[in-house]
Design goal:
- Pfam families: FAD_binding_3.
- It comes from Crenothrix polyspora.
- Keywords: Oxidoreductase.
- Its EC number is 1.-.-.-.
- Helix content is about 30%, strand content about 30%.
- The protein is of the alpha+beta class.
- The protein folds into 2 domains: about 190 residues, FAD/NAD(P)-binding domain; about 130 residues, 2-Layer Sandwich (D-Amino Acid Oxidase, Chain A, domain 2).
- Strands 5, 6, 13, 14, 15, 16, 17 and 18 form an 8-stranded mixed beta sheet that branches. Strands 1, 2, 8, 9, 10, 11 and 20 form a 7-stranded mixed beta sheet that branches.
- The protein is globular, with a radius of gyration of 21 Å.
- The N and C termini lie far apart (about 50 Å).
């Protein structure tokens, strides 16, 4: 491996937001791109519900639905929720009234976007961690990188893009102001059904005192079941332990019936799911995309859609900036702030629909004014 790389744009993070940023830059500009990813692309990817507007964004990136591997998009025929009362009813996303939805196979989706970015000219280096970030007098970036097997190298880039997800690893390392609004965590498991079980292609949300459950059918006789609750509740109830997680699942009214013939793939996994926004304007030639820019409660179903749309806008922002419009990054940040402010208002209204556990800590924290 080379000891030094020069690039116009360094993207740290190879998820959908990072890959889409690269695709947009490579499709609509002459800027060259390098993607650095800490993992070997083998981390847990939780399936996600998306609506057909995602395909419009992919069309902008010149990627067609037919370009994805079979099974990447599973049509969700029914989305139901027991939220606000004990009955079960049809549910749309809180930000969309489109009835049609798809369950995304994140592994296939993510790897296809990366593969397409590589075909269009992006260099991609997995298993590498950015250790240090410095800026020169002309605001270019000098980044020290450590590869898991190939040793150390450096990157010089005009622009730096944080696509490291909800944890905003680059933004935090650079001292960006990050406003976190809650401590939401996801504790879930992938459940397998034998071939004699016919699984409905549907999605269920069910509220409980500790938070809310999400169950969704995935390809290959698999379902994901996830409890969304707060970090202190995870710690107090030791929900990373299978027996404790299973007991809360058994206490549900509807979710337990969807999984009663399943077997789990090991112990539950725990992932961050909190809402937050990053102020990325304090450093020049820097921009954040996807969850690194702003992350949303999964009940909003905004994750993938925002990852791709923010990536497209960020790429255009960098192209315009490179041509001399130095106000473009600040304008991009204001747009992110507007989206996040609107989201907080709608999210609060949605959570206030549930009043059955008004004394429970999880719901007390959310049944307040924005």
């Amino acid at each position: 491996m080379a000891l030094h790389f020069d690039t116009d744009v360094l993207i740290v993070g190879g998820g959908p937001a990072g890959a889409a940023t690269a695709l947009s830059l490579l499709t609509y500009s002459d800027l060259n791109v390098l993607i650095i990813e800490n993992s070997a692309f083998d981390t847990i990817r939780v399936g996600e519900q998306v609506n057909p507007s995602l395909f419009d964004l992919l069309t902008y990136l010149k990627v067609g639905k037919e370009d994805f591997e079979e099974g990447s998009f599973v049509r969700g025929y029914n989305s139901q929720a027991a939220w606000g009362n004990s009955g079960i009813h049809s549910r749309d996303s809180i930000f969309s009234t489109q009835e049609e939805s798809y369950q995304l196979d994140r592994e296939k989706f993510d790897l296809m976007l990366l593969s397409e970015a590589s075909k269009r000219g992006s260099d991609i280096i997995p298993r590498a961690k950015c250790i240090d970030f410095k800026q020169t007098e002309d605001n270019h970036w000098c980044i020290s990188v450590k590869h898991q097997t190939e040793g150390d190298f450096s990157v010089i880039a005009k622009y730096l893009v944080d696509a490291t997800g909800r944890l905003s690893n680059v933004g935090r390392k650079l001292g960006m102001t990050i406003r976190q609004h809650d401590q939401l965590m996801a504790v879930g498991a992938f459940l397998h059904f034998d071939n004699t079980t016919v699984l409905k292609q549907d999605i269920l949300l069910e509220t409980v005192a500790e938070g809310w459950w999400y169950c969704a059918t995935l390809p290959n006789q698999v379902m994901v079941a996830t409890l969304f609750t707060d970090a202190d509740i995870v710690k107090e109830k030791r929900l990373q332990k299978a027996e404790n997680w299973n007991q809360l699942l058994a206490n549900t009214v509807y979710a337990k019936n969807k999984v009663n013939q399943a077997s789990a793939f090991g112990s539950p996994w725990v992932k961050a799911a909190f809402s937050k926004i990053t102020d990325a304007t304090t450093r020049k030639n820097f921009i954040a995309v996807g969850d690194a820019a702003a992350s949303f409660d999964p009940v909003s179903s905004m994750g993938i859609g925002f990852a791709i749309s923010s990536a497209c806008h960020a790429a255009n922002t960098l192209v315009v900036h490179s041509k001399g419009d130095l106000s473009s990054i600040a304008h991009y940040q204001r747009n992110i702030e507007d989206i996040f402010s609107h989201y907080l208002t709608i999210k609060a209204q949605f959570y206030r629909k549930e009043q059955r556990w008004s004394d429970a800590a999880f719901w007390q924290r959310r049944n307040v004014s924005v």
